[in-house]
Amino acid sequence: TTTLSFVRFLPFLERGEIAKAKDLYSKVLSHHPKDFDVLKGLCTIYHKEGNFKEAYDVINKAVSLFPDKQEIQLLYGKSAFHVGKLDEAEKVFTKLLAEDSGNADAREFLARIYLKEGKKEASLNEFRVILDGLVQKEELDSAVTILQEMIDVDHENPQLRHQLVDLYKKLGKNADVKKEYEFLASIYIKQGA
């Protein structure tokens, strides 16, 4: 019966009627408190709202019911991250990566945790793995986004800037190529190169 209920309120989510979808998820959850899809859906809605405390509370329950479900573990790690439970989140993401080293979501959050902990190199290493995967899959726009995040961490790293130039060239973004070359010139001038 929960699948039928899920199908009925899915259009509310698709139309962006979050409050209505949340109300329906909550009603279904009251009748089916151990339903995987409903717990996951309600947690996802709380994330969309930025209500991470509620998301954490819901997903905590789901973790105890479905400890082996990677989707639940990922939401649990994200929720823990957003409520500031970095040690908890780090354990979850590390475990997820041990099970599936290609889990880019887990790796990205682990990189963000390392950054918050002041572990710049560890953070950059995780971002590099994501970047390499995106470039290999030719998801260049996403690769640019990750590379820009890496540059935010290590602002004057010429190697990162050269990689960004290469991506911009592949994407045909000539104005961005020019801007990066100008920035690289300023870095080299500062370094006396």
Outline:
This protein has 193 residues and is mainly alpha-helical. Helices cover 82% and strands 0% of the residues. Helix 5 runs parallel beside helix 7, helix 7 runs antiparallel to helix 8 and helix 8 packs antiparallel against helix 9 (140-153).
Residue fraction in strands? under 5%
Count helical runs: 11
Indicate the low-confidence ranges by residue numbers.
none
As a whole number of angstroms, the C-alpha radius of gyration is 21 Å
The structure class reads mainly alpha
Q: How would you characterize the overall build of this protein?
A:
By secondary structure, this protein is an all-alpha fold. It contains eleven helices and no strands. It has helices at 2-14, 18-31, 36-49, 52-65, 70-82, 86-99, 104-116, 120-136, 140-153, 158-171, 174-191. Helix 8 runs antiparallel to helix 9 (140-153). The protein is elongated and about 70 Å long. The N and C termini lie far apart (69 Å).
Kindly list the characteristics that best describe this protein.
193 residues; mainly alpha; 0% strand; elongated
SSE layout and pairings?
Blueprint: H1 2-14, H2 18-31, H3 36-49, H4 52-65, H5 70-82, H6 86-99, H7 104-116, H8 120-136, H9 140-153, H10 158-171, H11 174-191
Helix pairs in contact: 1-2, 2-3, 3-4, 3-5, 4-5, 5-6, 5-7, 6-7, 7-8, 8-9, 9-10, 10-11
